[in-house]
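Request: Show me your protein:
***
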Amino acid sequence: MKRILFAFALMCSSAAGAAEWNNPFEGICLGEYRVIGTVGVGAGQIQINKERDTFAYGSVGITPSVGLWQVEVRYSNFDDGHLSVDQYGVNFKVDFTLNCDIQCLYWMAGWNYGEFDVDTVRRDDRRITVPVYADGSDNYWNAGVGYRYMWTRDFDTSIEYNYNDVGRVTDYDLGHLRSLTVNFSYRF
């Protein structure tokens, strides 16, 4: 009976300590974690049409006060005149050096859901434009790299390259969506 009671007490105290340690709301109040908001604008290109146009995104995330990693919920938009996409996703960023003080390189990966409005697609092999006029959606992964410069403890700018593996939407393989953006972030 003593062994069972000891094992039960050990498991309960470990679980209570883990729940206390891993509570992000308490961590934000204590200053261990910070909320970070980001807006970015740049250029994007979908593989099938090969036309570069405006790409913009906004995100809200959480990062530890030391800033080694960041988890964010993000929304982005791309429209090249032939098709447009609204992307919703979850992204994870990690600094390469794991000690980002002023400037650092980081990598990122995530999962997106995209809603596509496809008007026309360009077929490069025959140089013809195919009318589609259909809507579709797809789930796909993304990966990228970036360079961040911390101006103050709260404000930074970054340049970010992102690769989205879109795939097949409305009976056409759209290929990948690539973007290069300049971002402005503020930590609350």
